[in-house]
Amino acid sequence: MITHLVMFKPGASVSGESRRAILEMVRQVVSGSPTIRRCSVGRRVKHGVAGYEQTMREDYEYALLLEFDDVEGLKAYLTGAAHDAVGKLFTSASLAYDYEVMDLGEADRLL
Fold this sequence. Notes:
Layout: E1 2-10, H1 16-32, E2 36-43, E3 62-68, H2 71-78, H3 81-87, E4 91-100
Antiparallel strand pairs: 1-3, 1-4, 2-3
């Protein structure tokens, strides 16, 4: 499985109403993409453990995880118009990485 992880911070000018509209657009993109197998989204949790949060240079408020069967599915999504449209809408800062992810019992394949 390939996981596309995006951490992002909405722009200061993005209102609550705009955020709802953007969330609906993300839902439409996910449901309309045949290669996305699963989508999860979350808000950052701050717990105050000393020396942990303080070392982070950027405060990304949200994370989005998209799961794909393979790299070809990810590439189909990344090169599509829907990806560009969503990505440009609302972030003042973002960071994205792609990972091959598997159950720990299969992790020897990564070595």
